[in-house]
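Page 42, continued from yesterday. The earlier attempt failed because a stray header line got pasted into the input along with the sequence. Redoing it now with the clean sequence only.
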Amino acid sequence: VNPRLLVGALVQFDSMRQKSDTQSTDIRGEGWMFGPYATLRLSQHLFLQGRTAWGRSNNEVSPLMTYT
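This time it went through. Structure tokens are written below.
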């Protein structure tokens, strides 16, 4: 917008899996989020930042690798 104000948007996707034969567990998850952000320069070494985000996640846990 100008040299003191930066605005933008963020988009993020995450995916994970953790499987342990020793502990007999299997964990999976996926999620996403998006939203706006802004940074305002208050002085040479001082900034004010803010952001908000909305999203969703889907997770599965299988203890003892028997059910989810």
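Notes: DSSP finds no helices and four strands in the chain.
Reminder to self: strip header lines before submitting.
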